[in-house]
Write the structure tokens for this entry.
Amino acid sequence: MKIEWSEDFKKWCAKADKSYGWKEGEALERASNILDHAYFEEDLDELDQTGSISFEFSDWLIDAGPFTGHIDRFDVDKDSILNWKEYYAYRKTIFKLEGA
């Protein structure tokens, strides 16, 4: 199931693309991949219950022209996901099927 991001979140991602020298849409794609590949059901439960979550990284390096940076965290609010209820139910189902 594809995540439907809010317009504000899309704008933030577009700014990240520009800042990091990424191709257009890359930050949005990376954000979707992070949620689509969340390893633990508890991560998505936390997002549902608290309204936000941070995913921490240790090895995500970026190359932005003459600068190299390190991204250590990705934060997301469930309000940024327009189809959160449907997406959450879908992922819960996937976790249950994988555990069966």
